[in-house]
Each structure stands twice: as structure tokens, then as C-alpha cells.
Amino acid sequence: MIERPITDWLPLTKKEVEKRGWTDVDVVLISGDAYVDHPAFGTAVIGRIIESEGFRIAIVAQPNWQDDLRDFKKFGKPKYFFGVTAGCMDSMVNHYTANKRLRSNDSYTPGGEAGFRPDYATTVYSKILKQLYPDVPVLIGGIEASLRRVTHYDYWKDELMPTILADSEADMLVYGMGEQPLRELLSRLKNGETFEQVRDINQIAYLHESHDDVPEHKGWSSVEIASHEVCLQDKIKYASNFKVVEVESNKWQANRILQKVGDKTLVINPPFKTMEEKEIDQSFDLPYTRLPHPKYKNRGPIPAYEMIKFSINMHRGCFGGCSFCTISAHQGKFIASRSETSIMKEVEELVKHPEFKGYISDLGGPSANMYKMKGKDESICNRCQAPSCIHPVICSNLDTSHKPITEIYRKVDAHPEIKKAFVGSGVRYDLLVDDFNKNNKDGNHDEYMEQLVTRHVSGRLKVAPEHTSDDTLRVMRKPSFKYFRKFKEKYDKIQDKHNLKQPLIPYFISSHPGCEEADMANLAAETKDLGFQLEQVQDFTPTPMTVAEVIYYTGVHPYTLQPIKTAKTREEKLAQNRFFFWYKPEFRSWIRSRLHKLNRPDLADRLLASPKKKEQQTVAVGDKKKKKKKW
Predict the structure, then answer these.
(1) Residue (of 449, 453, 448, 482) closest to 465 by Cα position
(2) Which PANTHER family does the record cross-reference, listed alphabetically (predicted)?
């Protein structure tokens, strides 16, 4: 294999900077992830955008924050600013399980080793930079900063925290997918403006001195939410705040949000409109090597990279609006789809990878089958405030045609170097059930399913019904479980027709707000009747800026302010989880006793009866490994 020159990657060391003939740099980007030069890794995307705008960029990946801080000093003072990101995950989700146990591995570190980033990484990195270089602006972004941009509940501290701008001491925050605000910021800095002068850019947040009025903007109106201090005293006000933030995040013509925090005012400018095809192509078509930086060669593989190195992301965003999910909160509910040309260009790049053997592991996106879906009449979308386009019913204005994605699958399949292109992302099954999705006028959903099941399933297909109780599913913003049954019938028919044995892998969540013990017992019974034997189930984690997090903390739904019960104690969570293990002898007497106490002997009989004589599918869902930390 021919080794690529080190200058093909963005520089990680002073020596690499000098190899480019630079004596200093314009921007230094600090990241909690190892540097993988691939469009699935935010550090690479942001770094390549900065490079494409003509700036000299260097990266500090996973700096040591516990020594003499030499990693933060190695490039000296950048001309324009420091950029800071915790990485592709919130550092607390990265570090801890739903039971707050420390994880023993980190998928974004060579060798999968844990301990190479701090808790609350964005805040730690930013404060260090402000200590070392107080006069250099710090710009924070990425999912951790984005979802903590306003007063939020932190599950790990079990307390409300203010905007991350207050704790981190950063000068500015870019929220959501950062390409559009970053390009505008870079353009204006290049023209001589300062950070104080560029505060009218969409999709940024900053702290303003409260004794000065926030400057007017001719295109924006402002809405003020309850202050951080009021939220600390009043959970209902905090819940009401969330509704405003979510609604404004999902509008095309959004308001600017203001919130008092101590003696300052948090200003969150409205988001940009979703990227057009040309803009998202521009981001994916940058000159990535698609490889980890060579410095990691002897430290072992980077698990997150190994998982996606032969995958292709076709779109961003998700219009599902699920209560527990952060995808729409960060990427937006409107879908940004790449062009067919850009996708096929990436296929050509992928087949040149030195380890490629002809198999694409995933041809998908956040939800695999939302490619090219959007409003038929965009003027209706322009006025819409709904957090979901498919809950409680599918919007009649939503074009759910699967024809564009089916055509992409076929074109990739026809490529001479591709043996198989699998869909590893979760498929949004409710879009494929005609009883739920009334927008399937020309039957292209059936054509898509046939193509998917016969050509693109790698042994099993992942879908996420999440629960069986209609009451819990309403809180989750998910459709009734009866539609999963209908999807399974359709899926099984196609399998039988082609003599295939590719099990469905359904994902479920335990201890979600609105879920009672009897609901979990019923879930276990329903899945047992369908032939599933669940080995693991994902326990609910309240992550910032989700409906479910607000319910968990406040006890009320932010839209109705009506009480909703949530399992919180370790005992309650464990009880919900145990019902899934009806097939284990050690749990049988506990299950019978527990369900009799709940006056549900019928569920005990269903769960503890011998399984029907049909093939039982063993399904592992979630991540329940014991974890520990290491530096």
C-alpha cells in the first residue's frame, strides 16, 4: 500500500504545520475525539471547511488536561480564534451508562481506550484556553455545546445547569450543524470584523451584558423565556421554556430567544434554513482522506471509525421528533439530502480505500429511509411549528416517496466494484405501513421494501418500535405498536416469497417517562408472542434538550403541563427491566409475585407459559456492559 504524505491530513503537530510552510496558524480546533479525516466525524468536517475558506487550521485531538497543558500551547496563539468541541457525543453520555456507571471503553479513541477526555469536555477545554489565552476568542460547538445552549437538566449531576456559555466562559456558541454559521463567520472575520461585530449571524448564541439592551435586528423578533434563576425555583417554568425552545428550533421563520442568566442575557439567534442540496454536497465533497491520522497507527483501531469506514451518509435531519432523541434537536427536523452525483462520487472514493472488499456497511442516514423527503408545498412548512411531521399522524403535506432512495440503492448495486450495499441504519418502519402512511399513492413503498429486504439486509434489519403501550408511545411521539405488527407481516411475506431468513431486530426502551411496570410486563409478553427473546433492553437516559428529559426532571409534559410518572430509582428501573428475562428460571417466581401484586395475573400466565412451538429469535438491544475509566 502506498503511504500518503502527512500533508494530506490537517496538521496535528507543530512539525506538520512547518511541513506546510506555515509559521503560525489562523484557527486551532480542540477536539475530544481522535482525529479521523472522514465526513462522519465533526472535527474533520469543521476543519476541512475552515481550510476550504483559506484559513490555516491545526487540530489538537484529545489533549491532556491534567498535566502542564502543553497540548493546548503547542501551536501558540491562533490569529483568529480557538474552536472547541467535545466530539461526536456529549462527553457524559460517552462516559456513563444509563445507571451512571463509568464505561470502560471509548469508541472515538484508538484501541477503544477510555479516559482520554474529561467529563464536560467542552467546558474544561474552553476554561483552560481562557486561562492560557484570555484575549483570544473561543468558539464552542458540536453536540455537547449545541444541546446545552440554554438552561438544561443534567442527569449526572442531578441538577439544572445554566447555558454552557456561562460555565465554559466561551465567547460564542454555534448550535446545530455548523457549516452555514461557520462559513459566514469565517467570511466576516476575513473581512476584518471582530467577534463582537458578528453577533447577528444566524444559528449562534452568546452572552450579552444585561445592563445594555440587546441590539435590534430588522429580520428578527425576540421571545424571552424564564430566567435561569427562575427555573431553579420553578420546575413548571423550566418545562414551559422547553416548549418555546423546541418550537423555535423547528421553524423556518424563527424568533430570537433571550434568557437572563445572572447579570447577563443569553441570546440565541434563529437557525439557518435547512441546507440546500448544493450546500450539503459542498460539505461532503471536501478532500477527506477518509482515514484516521497516521499518528494512531500503533495504538489500535478506532471503533467508531471501524464501524463507519465503509458506510455512506446520504442525508441529515429527522422529522420523527421522538421525545427521547436528540437528532432533530441538533440536526433539525427538515431533511437535508445530498445529490445523487455527490453520493456516487463518494462511492468512487470508498472503493479506492485500501481495505475495501466490495461491501458497503451502511447506505443510510439518521433514519435510513427519509432521503429526499420534504413538504410538497414548502409555504406550508414555512408556517409549521409542529415538532414532528409524522406524529400523531403523518402530515398530508409530507412527500414520503421512497422512489429516490430506491433508485440510489439500484445505482450503487450496479457499480462494478460493489458486491453488496447494506442498510445498517435503523429503518423508520411506520413510513412503510400503508394503514399509517396514507401518502403512499403510487405503491413505491412496496417497491422499496422489496429492494431493501432482498438486496440490502445484512443478516438482520433494525427497527425501533420502542414500546408496545399506546399511552407510553404517545409520550414518546411514536405510533401504535399495531403498526409494527403490520410491518412485520409485510416483511415476513417478502422473506417467505424469496426464501430468506433475516430476523427483524426491534429496539425497545425501559423506564421511559409514562411507562409503568405493567406496561413493561405487557411489552415482554407481546414480544414473546411475536417470537422475540430479548437479551438486553436500552434503559432510558434523560439527555439535554429532549421532551423526555424535561418530563423526567419536572414530572410534567412541557406541552400540556400535565403530570406524567417516571421510574427514577434504581429499584424501579431494575423492576421494569426484569420482565424481559421471563425465560430465565431465576426470575420466574419474582415475575409471578410482582404481577399478582399489580393485579395482573393474566400477564404472569402469558409470560411464564411455555413458548409456542415456533422459532424464537434472540435479540440483543442496548448497551449494558460494566464500565470503568482509565487515563
Answers:
(1) 482
(2) UPF0313 PROTEIN YGIQ
Give the chain's largest Cα–Cα span.
76
Q: Which residues contact 561 (CB under 8 A, 6 or more apart)?
A: 236, 239, 240
DSSP 571-624: HHHHHHHHGGGTTSHHHHHHHHHHHHHTT-HHHHHHHHSPPPSSPPEEEE-S--
Pair 41, 86: CB distance under 8 Å: no
Strand partners for 139? 83, 172
Identify the helix (H) or strand (E) that includes residue 84.
strand 81-85
Question: Would you say 88 is a known binding-site residue?
Answer: no
Q: Which three cell numbers stand for residue 318?
A: 429527522
In this structure, what C-alpha cell is assigned to residue 555? 414530572
279, burial (CB in 10 Å: exposed 0-12, middle 13-18, buried 19+):
middle
* 220 DSSP 8-state letter: -
41 grid coordinates: 466525524
Distance CA 79, CA 191 (A): 14
Is 325 annotated to bind a ligand? Reply is: yes
How many whole angstroms from its chain centre is CA 17?
33
H/E element holding 345? helix 340-351
Confidence of residue 537 (pLDDT cuts 50, 70, 90): confident
> Do the annotations mark residue 322 as ligand-binding?
yes
Question: Could you give the CA distance from residue 307 to residue 553 in angstroms, rounded to a whole number?
Answer: 34
Beta strands in 358-449 (DSSP E): 359-360, 362-364, 374-375, 398-399, 420-421
Is the pTM higher than 0.90? The answer reads yes
Compute the half-sphere exposure of residue 133: CA atoms within 13 Å on the CB side of its CA: 22
Average pLDDT (279-287) is 97
Q: What is the pLDDT of residue 624?
A: 37
Closest among 360, 365, 370 to 307, alpha carbons compared? 360
Res 621 pLDDT > 90: no
Helix (H, G, I), strand (E, B) or coil at 473: helix
DSSP state of 113: B
Spatial separation of the C-alpha atoms in residues 543 and 539, rounded to whole Å: 12
**pLDDT-based confidence at residue 442 (cuts at 50, 70, 90):** confident
User: How long a stretch of residues is the chain?
Assistant: 631
Residue whose C-alpha is closest to residue 249's, from 274, 280, 231, 279: 274
Distance CA 59, CA 155 (A): 31
Residue with cell 475558506: 53
User: Which residues, at least 6 apart from 464, have a Cβ–Cβ distance to it below 8 Å?
Assistant: 426, 506, 507
Position 576: which residue type? Q
N-to-C CA span, the chain? 33
What sign does the CA torsion over 210, 182, 187, 137 have?
positive
pLDDT digits (tens, 9 = 90+) for 128-185: 999 999 999 999 999 999 999 999 999 999 999 999 999 999 999 999 999 999 999 9
In angstroms and rounded to an integer, the radius of gyration of the C-alpha atoms of the chain is 25
> In which residue are the cell numbers 463567520 written?
185
pLDDT of residue 625: 37
Q: Around Cβ 188, how many Cβ atoms within 10 Å?
A: 16
Cis preceding-peptide flag for 392 (omega within 30 of 0): yes
Sign of CA dihedral 487, 489, 490, 492: positive
Amino acid at the residue 223: V
DSSP result, 516-562: -HHHHHHHHHHHHHTTEEEEE-EEP---SS-HHHHHHHHSB-TTT--
In order, the DSSP letters of 205-255 are EEEEETTSPPPP-TT--EEE---HHHHHH-HHHHHHHHHHHHHHHT-SSPP
**Cα of 62 vs its chain's centroid, Å:** 21
If DSSP codes are grouped into helix, strand and coil, which group holds residue 404? helix
